[in-house]
Amino acid sequence: MSAPRLARPDMVREPALRPAYDPAAHGVGIVHIGAGAFHRAHQAAYTDAALAEAGGDWRITGVSLRSREVAEALNPQNGLYTLLERGAEGTQARVIGALAGILAADPAATLEAMCDPAVKIVTITVTEKGYGIDRATRGPDRTHPAVAADLAAPEAPAGVLGLLVAALARRRAAGIAPFTVLSCDNLPENGALLRDGVVGFARLVAPELAEWIAAEIAFPSSMVDRITPAPTAQTLVDAERLTGCTDLAAIETEPFHQWVIEDRFPAGRPAWEAGGALFVADVTPYERMKLTMLNGSHSMLAYAGFLAGHRYVRDVMADAALAGLVQRHLAAAAAVLPALEGIDLRAYAEALATRFANPAIAHETYQIAMDGTEKLPQRLLNPAVCAEEAGLPLRPFAFAVAAWMRYCLGECDAGETYALRDPREAEIKAALTDHGRDPGAISLALHGLPGLFPEALKSSASWRAEVEDALSAMLAEGMKGAIGRELARLEPAG
Ligand code: CS2
């Protein structure tokens, strides 16, 4: 007999796996834009812990801006889903009750949900490219499809900036107190950046609103961390085994999780500390630490690892040479960071290496490799500028950037081709046409992509020489050969 479809907490075979509260007894207080696996493994799990410990009307209406997949899996289950935590010692399950439901590809209903007086917070995970904010001007990026569409029809928005501005405008006009806006993406000073983007968008469509948003709306920054691979068929099999229910929305993640948040929530917030969230006055140093060390080394190992034939991060960590370069990168990244009270960066680096090596997590290097042009600045380029300013070695960052450049060719050493999956893919391809495999020309072309590389690197002869040297080795000897050669620089013979 097949297992029943998860639809009520009491259907879960093990009572210990059910939410410790009655989900239906709690109203919605949060709209979350970007209800993918990461949100469900992170913010929703913290909210679940807060509901269990402190109660309150803090359930979440999730929004999928484009896809219907998550809604189709979750809505028939009343928002319930299994969260698997996979560690070296085994897999733990837990059923999360924090999501009330998902709105899929329905901007009008999303806007309505955001205008509900009961909603006190709008949280967001749309990845770096989802916001449509120009990082140089910090205003709306008019070339971003959703931004362009929303600027043309601001009364019927479908993108993040447009929805936020329209919802805040409507609430203000109706005399409803505004919500707090909480970005949970891997962007530096994500709250301040989003605030600038929203205020900039408002200036273009409703100037009188812009100053009010700037003065009245809280955009706390937050640092989020939990390695969450895309769920697979095995995720669903294990969820069913552990809960006794068929769960088409099950997801999996690692046991570790971290959330550091600026405590500025004028309309109130859930007791996220119940799930372990840390509230601080300034998130910036935590954000920088995570982006530079975790995400920086992730990007390096994703480009080098993918091209060396490693499908998963755990395979990279089982390759002694590449794991050695991950250690080198972590140390170089730590060296450009200011001291952080109460945090031992060496211990943090060790913990990261252990997390990356988690044998139970199948995190694809190809997944991390996507959207390089959106990720490189905060993960590798800004840290490289800091290294240059401090007179520290540039090589680890240059090797990582060379691996990205090699990846941009779209072809493995064995000749197999792949899609870059980068919003600037077409531009990258155009820049690289006619350059064949000439490292100098490739480096020159990619350094010339508008707005990507900081001037300090573009004009640094030593930086460019390091990048070209590493890229030459990758092209001449293949990625595996180049990794071996790079490691030999670290461990001189004799
Ligand atoms: C990864 C992140 O895909 C990526 O680019 O570096 O998603 C990483 O897994 C998370 O930031 C971990 O918190």
UniProtKB/TrEMBL annotation:
The keyword NAD applies. Keywords: NAD, Oxidoreductase. GO terms for molecular function: oxidoreductase activity, acting on the CH-OH group of donors, NAD or NADP as acceptor. It comes from the Bacteria. The keyword NAD applies. Residues 29-273 form the Mannitol dehydrogenase N-terminal domain. InterPro entries: 6-PGluconate_DH-like_C_sf, 6PGD_dom2, Mannitol_DH, Mannitol_DH/Oxidoreductase, Mannitol_DH_C, Mannitol_DH_CS, Mannitol_DH_N, NAD(P)-bd_dom_sf. GO terms for biological process: mannitol metabolic process. Residues 282-439 form the Mannitol dehydrogenase C-terminal domain. This is Mannitol dehydrogenase family protein. The lineage of its organism: Bacteria, Pseudomonadati, Pseudomonadota, Alphaproteobacteria, Hyphomicrobiales.
